[in-house]
């Protein structure tokens, strides 16, 4: 007989935390908490296998499920001394969904299940609180009516609002038993009106209705979309948790709350969260009343922290907090209820956190001995470091503060205000900076939040949807700014007399919660000690070297500041575009007289040498790979009338002649045209000038600093052995000439990009003339797929959305295709030339998944944009640890 049902609480815990696949995250952790002695109301979990069986068998349950559920219900009844459906002492339960990973789109929880017109009387008698009983009943009818029977939420809200207006009350807690009774009656009528059905009064019918709704929600469109976006297979299924109710709405010695064992925004080791007295379930996040802080330390003037209001339960919660952290060895996100001063735990999970918090918590926990350094390294998502490197508001900048909300997700962001996720996405796609402003957000807004620089909400707390999602995504968020009033009809918001229309700019400071008018200047982030500590630990573990792609002094300095161990790619063409240079470049290309041409080249030599001198100085002896001119020459050609005239004057030609010459240089397919080493071979004087500039600069800086500069000269777009052989010979001739003129000696390397499939295949031949290879994975991806990276935007997203490609191959390396060529290049290159140095310098050099691959194939280093250097250092350490683990288990 298959076991479909696992009990927890009251001494029988059939599940464990490791059984998340079978019991879902919520169910597994409820059992785990109960098994370590924490106060968890007893209940049971119907496994994810039931969900799969349900769908495999035409939406029918396994035969023996009902008997197992009945037995588990009886166990709860025994534990609580109550009977499900009993008119005198009714057991009430919650029905909660819970997949392996928390998933929006799944059925909302139904509380107080088991109430009807009779049992509500029993509850009133047994609790001695009639108001509480009817409050629970109205909650149940509303939840069941909307969640299970599909009557839109707002129908119930409208009735309640109407009631409150007539009665002249604002707060739910001021409504009496008799009044709630009227509301319940009205709710029953609404349900009948909208569904044509009676509200089910039989508790067994209620229970199976709710269970069916959970399993049904697994295949609803929202859940399907979410699964598709997050690669969650439909076969996983969801579990259902049925749990005896505890009541936070029984009076002023009762409460409900959500909290984190540490601050999820900063990582500080303080208890953090919100609670509400005399409330139930989602009241805290729903924004019906303003939640109160947990701790005195975090309370502001006029607030009522739980520490003061419910000191006993708070003390108990502190004990639980320490216990849970020690047990799970991670920061926890807890849901709890206090019933008549007694604490109950309803959920725990590893808490979502900002990058800054992840970093601080990892370092602190390693120091506290809760986790190892290796664990700490793996606890911080490499890409999230990006957020730490983001700007903050310039303290000296002028500003007009509009209001203040909750500091829900740190960082500073400015942008145009928009009020819908759709508009947000549309504007972001056009390259605009946008701030999404909503009363509150829901899962439908997630795509808009992703496109936004920041999110501002009028309602909701630190644990509201907006706050949690924004922190997870690394978006700036200010939540619950109560003075923000949004009129979706006119697309205008007002804040204390200021009227702000769609498209107007505001600035958010997610670290303080402040909202400012217009754009406020920002300053670069300051790297914390924790950041440096983690980087140090990562460096001691990683095998891969990390360099940066940089050619300007600013980029080189940033690269050094972020710990780059050299420059893996300095693109010389970027130096050709400066206003003082482009004229010479144009003359060099267009001139037909040798002397004129050489004059332009000589002028460029001076600029290039200065460029290299400053880079070599900044890099202070670290390796620098300089790539010789790569793009098609016509990219530098003049277009505007004034530019044409300027070149014409300089060369003593007519504008028409220049125009004709430019036209003759146009190519049908320039990315596959006259570029890379093809240029250098047909115009040897250009490469000769660049080589000379590099060598002269290296000599100069070596002299200056006493550090031996070893320049690495890289020849791009090589396809054949002969190309590299000839280009290398020419470069060496120029180098000898320079060294002879100077009577100096210098160590140098000459290598090539491997960025064409032919080069990867012929790597064994090419390696004979190379001191190093650098895989140019952008071009290699482009040429392997035959896919122009400049044109892919119009169809690549379709490919990814429809599963034709797992990911954008320009973002994350295509292991099977492009990756196979890299692997071939590595193996053939090393076989022919032991000691050949191998790196990669495409965009993939900063992508953690790709970095794991490069570690696996045995490259020596990755090179990425300067801001990605910390990401790459951490990702390289994580890759090394993953390989260690694989080897250990192999
Ligand atoms: P979600 O996955 O949306 O967090 P939950 O199943 O955790 O949904 O439940 C939502 C709210 O209902 C939580 O705040 C939780 O504390 C409360 N809740 C769930 N079950 C019970 C119960 N048995 N007794 C009291 N409150 C409950
Ligand atoms: Mg929950
Ligand atoms: Mg290239």
UniProtKB/TrEMBL annotation:
<dbReference type="InterPro" id="IPR013815">
    <property type="entry name" value="ATP_grasp_subdomain_1"/>
</dbReference>
<dbReference type="InterPro" id="IPR040442">
    <property type="entry name" value="Pyrv_kinase-like_dom_sf"/>
</dbReference>
<keyword id="KW-0067">ATP-binding</keyword>
<feature type="domain" description="PEP-utilising enzyme mobile">
    <location>
        <begin position="432"/>
        <end position="513"/>
    </location>
</feature>
<dbReference type="InterPro" id="IPR036637">
    <property type="entry name" value="Phosphohistidine_dom_sf"/>
</dbReference>
<dbReference type="InterPro" id="IPR018274">
    <property type="entry name" value="PEP_util_AS"/>
</dbReference>
<keyword id="KW-0808">Transferase</keyword>
<keyword id="KW-0460">Magnesium</keyword>
<dbReference type="GO" id="GO:0050242">
    <property type="term" value="F:pyruvate, phosphate dikinase activity"/>
</dbReference>
<keyword id="KW-0670">Pyruvate</keyword>
<keyword id="KW-0479">Metal-binding</keyword>
<dbReference type="InterPro" id="IPR015813">
    <property type="entry name" value="Pyrv/PenolPyrv_kinase-like_dom"/>
</dbReference>
<dbReference type="InterPro" id="IPR008279">
    <property type="entry name" value="PEP-util_enz_mobile_dom"/>
</dbReference>
<dbReference type="InterPro" id="IPR010121">
    <property type="entry name" value="Pyruvate_phosphate_dikinase"/>
</dbReference>
<dbReference type="Pfam" id="PF02896">
    <property type="entry name" value="PEP-utilizers_C"/>
</dbReference>
<feature type="domain" description="Pyruvate phosphate dikinase AMP/ATP-binding">
    <location>
        <begin position="312"/>
        <end position="368"/>
    </location>
</feature>
<dbReference type="InterPro" id="IPR023151">
    <property type="entry name" value="PEP_util_CS"/>
</dbReference>
<keyword id="KW-0418">Kinase</keyword>
<dbReference type="Pfam" id="PF00391">
    <property type="entry name" value="PEP-utilizers"/>
</dbReference>
<feature type="domain" description="PEP-utilising enzyme C-terminal">
    <location>
        <begin position="530"/>
        <end position="879"/>
    </location>
</feature>
<dbReference type="InterPro" id="IPR000121">
    <property type="entry name" value="PEP_util_C"/>
</dbReference>
<comment type="function">
    <text>Catalyzes the reversible phosphorylation of pyruvate and phosphate.</text>
</comment>
<dbReference type="Pfam" id="PF01326">
    <property type="entry name" value="PPDK_N"/>
</dbReference>
<feature type="domain" description="Pyruvate phosphate dikinase AMP/ATP-binding">
    <location>
        <begin position="61"/>
        <end position="295"/>
    </location>
</feature>
<feature type="domain" description="Pyruvate phosphate dikinase AMP/ATP-binding">
    <location>
        <begin position="21"/>
        <end position="57"/>
    </location>
</feature>
<protein>
    <recommendedName>
        <fullName>Pyruvate, phosphate dikinase</fullName>
        <ecNumber>2.7.9.1</ecNumber>
    </recommendedName>
</protein>
<keyword id="KW-0547">Nucleotide-binding</keyword>
<dbReference type="InterPro" id="IPR002192">
    <property type="entry name" value="PPDK_AMP/ATP-bd"/>
</dbReference>
<comment type="similarity">
    <text>Belongs to the PEP-utilizing enzyme family.</text>
</comment>
